[in-house]
Amino acid sequence: MSRSSEALSAHWPEYLAEAAGLGFFMVSACAFGTLLGHPDSPVVRVFPDPVARRVLMGLAMGVTAVGLIYSPWGQRSGAHFNPATTLTFWRLGKLTTADAAFYALFQLLGGIAGVWVAAGALGERVGHPSVQYVATVPGEAGIAGAFAAEVGITFILMSVILRVSNTAGLARFTPLFAGALVATYISVEAPISGMSMNPARSLASAIPAGAWAPLWIYFVAPPLGMLLAAHVYVKRWGLGAVFCAKLHHDNSKRCIFRCRYTELTSQRLEHAAPEPEPSRLGT
To answer: DSSP alpha helices (H): ranges in the chain?
Structure first.
């Protein structure tokens, strides 16, 4: 049996969890994008200011991201939901090549399936020009601005994930940090690049929207930004300071990665241990 077949046979639940996670994220994105973007939506009439609606979209997707990372799917697979994230952890030596390839494949399939489900449920509304299947396209800053912005936001995201998830006292809060960045980026950065950070997410929307011209940006910039962040982190802290590839590890689900998380939990327990009381012998 080949390594790929062995990986698929052993780890298919994790692969399906990755597909389900990104699929649900895309359903949520399409639903909230329609609710907050379609001109016939009552929310648009209540909140005519596009900036206010963008902040609401950011909050909705930030909460969605946190919920998915903490969900049974996220606990099982590690909640990458993004080929750029998986590529980065593969580069850091936390995944086998077979697992990384299957993660990326199932993420792509899950994202496409999620948009397909949303289109079936929402009908023509999700394809309206004001929604456009929540496709990620460059804003007024053009292609160069969008590319630079995607590199920048993914660099920050991966830098935060690596630092927080590998710090004993903060690791359990990694989903909250990631969700807060998603919410902030959608609120602030989306007008520049569309706020993708994820090749699978952008491809899923581009297929029905026909947004092919700018797609290369979202296939190149997010992996570049995350790999740069990993390079800087390793230079500063060393490869030994990367304990696992899960974004949420404080759970009972198995871990299929090259995992050293018990070392991190040991550090946390050591830090939490009370100072021994001074001996009273002889007093």
So the answer is: 3-37, 42-46, 50-70, 72-77, 83-91, 97-122, 142-165, 174-188, 190-193, 199-209, 215-237, 261-272
Rounded Cα distance, 71 and 19, in Å: 13
Amino acid at 96: T
With beta carbons less than 8 A apart as the criterion, state whether 86 and 100 touch. yes
Give the torsion sign (CA, 132, 134, 138, 140): positive
The CA distance from 198 to 131, in Å, is: 19
pTM for this structure? 0.93
Mean pLDDT of the chain: 94
Q: Is residue 52 classed exposed, middle or buried when 0-12, 13-18 and 19+ CB atoms within 10 A define those classes?
A: middle
- pLDDT band of residue 271 (cuts 50, 70, 90) is low
Fold of 3-272: Glycerol uptake facilitator protein (1.20.1080)
| Sequence ranges of the domains in the chain | 3-272
**Total residues found in the chain within this entry:** 283
Sign of the alpha-carbon dihedral angle for 194, 195, 197, 199 = negative
Distance CA 132, CA 36 (A): 12
